[in-house]
Amino acid sequence: MHVAEPQFAFLCGLLKRRTGVCIDGTKHYLVTARLLPIVRQRRLPSIETLLDRVRSGDDPSLERDVLCAMMTHETSFFRDQAPFEALRRVIAELAVSRTRERSLVIWSAACSTGQEPYSIAMVLHEHFRDLVAAWKIRILATDFSDVVLARAREGVFSGLEIARGVPPHLLQKYFRQLQGRWSVTHEIRQLVEFRQLNLNADWPAWPPCDIVFLRNVMLYFDPLTRTALVAKVRRVLRPDGALFLGGAETLIGVSDDWERVADGGSCHYRPRPR
Ligand SMILES: C[S@@+](CC[C@H](N)C(=O)[O-])C[C@H]1O[C@@H](n2cnc3c(N)ncnc32)[C@H](O)[C@@H]1O
To answer: Are residues 199 and 169 in the same domain?
Structure first.
């Protein structure tokens, strides 16, 4: 279905301005598929009416619903696997360099429904039990969308979501069956703090981070937005910290302020000394 041009252009502009997410002029099918459920739920006559209502600005919750619906929340446990093996090596190094402070901050910066931060928590529990017991460890998990954050906080996953990445020995240890679904155990859940945060707006005061996962979100942004975002990430990442991107993402052409570290089947980035 084709969305009328003025409303389509309004949506593209709003999405880009508020969130950084870009959609091109060919994505009418995407807009239709994502917005029709809201149109039906609110009993509106058309997508154009929905977007006119958003433009009128008298229902801010409608704007949020539309922006969240336009985002792609695809994720899985231990996505791409290799970065989580590299994460283990990076934490092992930090376990030595942070012995005086005995604290670690890891940020999952576009956490979607929570599989990424819970995977990080499982890596910590499996391989760094002493640190978990004795250090102050925080996994901050943020996303633009309140809808995915509510699901993430709940920490309950379908069999299909579990099958996408959770190995049987971790399923047995860190999940409990709950009416045909799987709930993460308290020890994993308590390590993760979920918060709403728009990467494309001013951030609240943010703690210095040792590791940042900024995976599979920059690919939706244009080059200028990517450059501005990694500059902000650099300000919160400690000088010896590590930045992980998605498998299809790179800092080539985005920023020269980072060194690429190849590690097994994956890579991460370190801030280049100034
Ligand atoms: C494809 S998911 C990636 C999830 C996870 N990082 C992974 O790699 O599996 C992208 C997430 O980025 C979030 N997102 C998009 N734009 C954002 C923004 N401006 N601020 C914060 N989160 C955003 C979306 O809501 C979505 O949940």
So the answer is: yes
